[in-house]
Amino acid sequence: AGDEFTTTDFIHLMQSVPAAAEAYDQALVAWGEQERHSKMVIHGQVVPGALRRSNKVEWQGFAHGEVDEYAVPAWWKLTSQD
After folding, report:
1. Phi/psi of residue 5, each to 5°?
2. Beta strand pairing status for 57-62 and 74-78?
3. FRET label pair with 54: which of 34, 48, 79, 82, CA 20 to 30 Å apart?
């Protein structure tokens, strides 16, 4: 219905916006591990944690079968904003 997306969708959208893509790249460097390990933390903990703290989305469950080589993505749904 257009109001649902996966963590992977969100990360792809982030990477299409120059300032957000730069922040993503800086987060990888700041984590200080090998690139793959850093991406595992960003995809599996940092981004989902930020989304969980947002009042603009709700967690809908794990997106089993969704391709992300760094984490098990989740489904998210935009909340109604009155």
Report:
1. -155, 165
2. antiparallel
3. 34
Q: Which two tokens stand for residue 1?
A: 């219905």
Whether residue 82 is contained in a domain is answered as no
User: Rounded to whole angstroms, how far apart are CA atoms 9 and 6?
Assistant: 5
User: What's the domain count of the chain?
Assistant: 1
pTM of the model: 0.90
Q: SS3 of 16, please?
A: helix
The domain of 38 spans: 4-77
